[in-house]
Amino acid sequence: MKRKGWTFWLGLGAVILIVLNLPTSTSAALKRSARDVLSPLQSVVASFTNRLAAARDVLAARGGLPDELSRLREESVLLRHQLVEFEELQQENLLLRYELGFMRSTRRLPVAAEVLARDISGWWQMVRVDHGGGLAVQPDQAVISSEGLVGKVVDTSRRTADVLLITDPACRVAVRIGERGAFGILSGQGLSLRGRPVCRLELINKDVRLRRGDPVYTSGLGGIFPRGLLAGHLDEITLDETGLHQSATVIPAANISDLRVVFILTAIEEAAR
Amino acid sequence: MNRLLMWVVLCLCAIVQAILPPWLAMGQAKAPLLLAGVVYYALSRGSLHMAEAAVLAGLLQDSLGPIPLGFSVLAFTGVALLIHQFQDRIFADSLPTHVLAGFAAPVVVSMALYVLLVSGGYRAGVPFSFVMSKTLGMSLLGMVTFPVVFWGIRDMEVRLGVESLRRAA
User: Are residues B15 and A119, on separate chains, in Cβ contact within 8 Å?
Assistant: First the structure.
């Protein structure tokens, strides 16, 4: 009986030690396999909850739906018109790049992905999305929603991708503030005391006049996030203790707390012809 | 059957826990469903089943999130062993036990994970106030979810005849 007890303790200790000391590549492969195995089930649950949420939205909107529909129709016509113009500009841009000797250019193609789950432990600001097995989805690609910047891909498996949200302290984004010519690094601050997702922008030149509500866009520096994506809007603006710089809290433009579908900006290289 | 049911229950707990929205005002606390499953098996089964449940739940939590593999295994196994020690001294089937376990177990797990994550340099910038509010949030959610999960697993066991097998053993 005593021997059996010792065997149990030794076995349990050995399992824990082995799992804790697995090489990084092995543990990453194990984690990806587990995600792929569970992703079909997660996908079913996620689409069910998304439908429930959509039904709730419809019920909540009620009388507002016809107005919303007509607004969306107008927006659709406008966007189609803009798309035609942009395609012409893109062709022109490719031609000019060719004339200047830039043979290749990078185009970002958005891949729609449904949000399957949030970080299971709640220690990270992260969501898992189902990208449908697209090979073009890779780490360090920007992720957006219809409202603005959401985050970046940090890990991928065959069907899923982990997206680190801009509100996570580990996520840093190079940004510029509207048309005021101020640049800075936006870093996640998690959640405010009221549970609102927030980011922080520090070391802004004190001479730049900032106003609450000023839009914050990605600057394109750093290579991960393309230029011009709306990241959020300035909220509280304060002067540092030294009086040399300003800092500001930024409210993300995307509804980080209620993400259902996001778009991964995959990079596709194309040659100018 | 008994073991298969345990695996299915823990996988379901993991999937539902992952999809449930976090309690934003309380440090993004999530309902500790996986932990509830582990504590259920620690209170109602032998050492081997308890250890298997703790290791499997830990692996699931680590695999479905960015926590390094093994951290949750260690935390869940610690809690399971602690609770298993009291198995014969408490009323494992009573509601107050479930509520108390739902309050205490998340405290141990979130503190253990905090120490492991900070010492490993994975969450160095996390303020302690966030951890405190997360712990409190998880404990409050645990007080509600533990009895529900316990009742759900027990009900499934009774329907599948696993309960009578367990009692006979």
Answer: no
Provide the pLDDT for residue B164: 54
Count CB atoms within 10 A of the CB of residue A197: 23
Per-residue pLDDT of A143-201, as tens digits, reads 999 889 999 999 888 888 999 999 988 889 999 988 777 888 898 887 776 667 889 98
Range of the domain at B102: 2-20+27-168
Looking at the structure of chain B, the number of domains it has is 1
- Cα–Cα dist A258/A199, whole Å: 17
A9 touches chain B (CB under 8 A): no
Number of structural domains found in chain A: 1
Provide ipTM, 2 decimals: 0.81
CATH of the domain at A232: 2.40.10.350
* CATH number assigned to the domain comprising residue B163: 1.10.1760
Residue A210: which domain range? 172-253
Q: Return the closest-CA partner of residue B65 out of A231, A168, A192, A136.
A: A168
Nearest CA in chain A to B33: A120
Query: Measured between CB atoms, does A31 come within 8 Å of chain B?
Result: yes
Whether residue A272 is predicted with pLDDT greater than 70 in this model: the reply is no
Q: Are B60 and A123 a contacting pair at CB < 8 A? A: no
Question: What mean pLDDT is reported for chain B?
Answer: 88
Rounded CA separation A239/A203 (Å): 10
- B18 interaction partners in chain A (CB closer than 8 Å): 42, 116-120, 128
